[in-house]
Amino acid sequence: xxxxxxxxxxxxxxxxxxxxxxxxxxxxxxxxxxxxxxxxxxxxxxxxxxxxxxxxxxxxxxxxxxxxxxxxxxxxxxxxxxxxxxxxxxxxxxxxxxxxxxxxxxxxxxxxxxxxxxxxxxxxxxxxxxxxxxxxxxxxxxxxxxxxxxxxxxxxxxxxxxxxxxxxxxxxxxxxxxxxxxxxxxxxxxxxxxxxxxxxxxxxxxxxxxxxxxxxxxxxxxxxxxxxxxxxxxxxxxxxxxxxxxxxxxxxxxxxxxxxxxxxxxxxxxxxxxxxxxxxxxxxxxxxxxxxxxxxxxxxxxxxxxxxxxxxxxxxxxxxxxxxxxxxxxxxxxxxxxxxxxxxxxxxxxxxxxxxxxxxxxxxxxxxxxxxxxxxxxxxxxxxxxxxxxxxxxxxxxxxxxxxxxxxxxxxxxxxx
Length: 417
What we know:
Helix content is 37%, strand content 18%. It contains 15 helices and 17 strands.
């Protein structure tokens, strides 16, 4: 939509509120109180509660939601659409609630775009969806996360189902997660993609009727009629539909990221980007907000990996299986992580037997106890991760951390230079 037409849809109140929000953000940056985008957006929303509806009007929107893989899939989809010639904005840094999206769409660079590619929190998605006109919605998976804060996963699936049935949307959904299939079931236009599901503990019973889900290889079904739909299929590193095979070579490691790449290229296709173009853009995504990057600390090269819940930890443990480099496993239990660390007992740390392992973070003792029961010997670090890495006596190490530990490491690394 031309900029002049869009401007007519944004009321004077919202324009003033957005300007004051941007000024607040800039002041926050000047005072070194943080990036400022969230506090600025909160100012905007206090002054203009309907700001998101107006700022999104006239924009084409793509949403990526789910428990795991949102940021990486968002980055891949953004890269694919950019390669397809679209002018885009995206919140790939992860500000995925209403305030973060308002902050993004309030920026000057969002005025003349073809597409906004938005990572959206899975709990927030149903309440944000009505603000967008006929979006493309990518649904990845649903699993337990932050047990003291999040609703039961079936409740989230039911909320998705209600929201998607209430308005037009083009949905790209994971065919291997019964919760996602159920959640997408009321959408009028759904394309399913079979990308696999290693973590099945949250999908053992049917979200529709409660009976056990039955499985045979990749197929799954329930007596009530809910079953795995016909889909694009991921075979190794190729996306297959009929006679068409698309090779996927993402720039970040792990089979789970091949699955994220499959979801991204199908969503890009729904947005008009040819498979050959989107698949060719995947290699440009080599790090996402610090994830998967390798940093040099003293004489050690450390690869930074983020895992926030049992499903994510399981994927990373599969990715590093067979490797021999030491591991630093670090967890906190702050509000952003979820204060309940009982999820540690759902992670198969037994797979690390024989590896050199270090437990770190504010809840290193909890982690060390879990590792002891897994018969994994570990050292315990008490201190800043970068300081300890600077003294580490190994040339290479993988650092797997949950959310706030990871954020602290990335911030400290930036402060060091």
